[in-house]
DNA sequence: TATTGTTATACTCTATAACTATA
DNA sequence: TATAGTTATAGAGTATAACAATA
């Protein structure tokens, strides 16, 4: 076994387990703290997806957000109840559900995006150009590693 | 306003919101998939803290894991019920609770650590040395940005 | 029969508020 | 009174299993 590589990969894994939850919690807390937004992270991700993919089905959104159909069904119940999402049966295949943001949903999404970004920027503003570059690079590496499998 | 910096910081923030939940979900899922472990991420973090800080109080653990006292109290209930943690009243100040891993808890923690690391390594094994370096660097940057505030 | 979605059930996470025990 | 912890309550996340509706 290639011990050099193994050691560094283990270090990477350990770092991820330690740091990712830290950042995640921060994002989550910020989003709930801001009154205008009041969306959870999965909810935000669902709304973003619907914003980019109007008329998406429940399965599509669930797949993208990475949760099961029952969970997504319930989440959409909530979002519909709050007037952020519109849900109707597809006319061509009535098994499918067609989801879309309501105007209110679009506004909430934009507000949440702005607030979250502002808050994150606040935490990141001490970073110099090189550190920012490293961060972006790393996020791309992670996206590829975790998206395609 | 310094538009150059602002733009990059915004990009960083957007990337974080997009990628961190992805990685987080993966870590979570892997941990629950592995039979030997079956710990949630906050539970794992609590056990790790107890492993490094024997006799820690409830407040200490809650502070480190980043959740409130009631949540941690309940989580410890569960972990005590599963025989992973020992809870007793401090003899010097009976308001305090002294927490410690049981032998079973230590074993579970070690198993969970190994499994999680193995699974993460599986996802990361396509990375070259440079990418691994970027990842470690980025995690350090994030730790500093999100730990100290 | 296969696919899409919903309901039912069961845990966990997390927060806030009210309470208890100890100092 | 102040501090540490617990209990109560509530909403959300998540999974699995069972079910309904449609194709």
Write structural notes for this entry.
The structure is a homodimer of 149-residue chains. Chain A is mainly alpha-helical and 149 residues long. Chain A contains six helices and two strands; from the N terminus they run ααααββαα. The first copy, chain A, has helices at 3-33, 41-52, 58-65, 69-81, 103-124, 129-147; strands at 85-89, 97-101. In chain A, strands 1-2 form a two-stranded antiparallel sheet. In chain A, a hairpin with a 7-residue loop joins strand 1 (85-89) and strand 2. In chain A, helix 2 (41-52) packs across helix 3, helix 2 (41-52) crosses helix 5 (103-124) and helix 3 crosses helix 4 (69-81). The model of chain A has no long low-confidence stretch (mean pLDDT 88). Chains A and B meet through helix 1, helix 2, helix 5 and helix 6 of A and helix 1, helix 2, helix 5 and helix 6 of B.
């Amino acid at each position: 076994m290639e011990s050099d590589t193994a050691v560094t990969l283990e270090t990477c894994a350990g770092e991820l387990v330690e740091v990712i939850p830290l950042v995640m919690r921060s994002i989550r807390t910020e989003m709930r703290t801001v009154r205008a937004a009041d969306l959870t992270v999965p909810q935000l991700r669902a709304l973003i997806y619907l914003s980019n993919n109007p008329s998406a089905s429940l399965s599509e959104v669930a797949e993208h957000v990475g949760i099961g159909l029952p969970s997504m069904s319930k989440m959409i119940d909530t979002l519909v109840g709050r007037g952020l999402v519109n849900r109707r049966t597809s006319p061509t295949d009535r098994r499918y559900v067609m989801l879309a943001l309501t105007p209110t949903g679009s506004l909430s999404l934009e507000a949440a995006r702005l607030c979250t970004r502002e808050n994150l920027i606040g935490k990141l503003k001490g970073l110099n150009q090189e550190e920012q570059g490293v961060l972006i690079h790393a996020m791309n590496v992670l996206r590829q590693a975790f998206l395609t499998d």
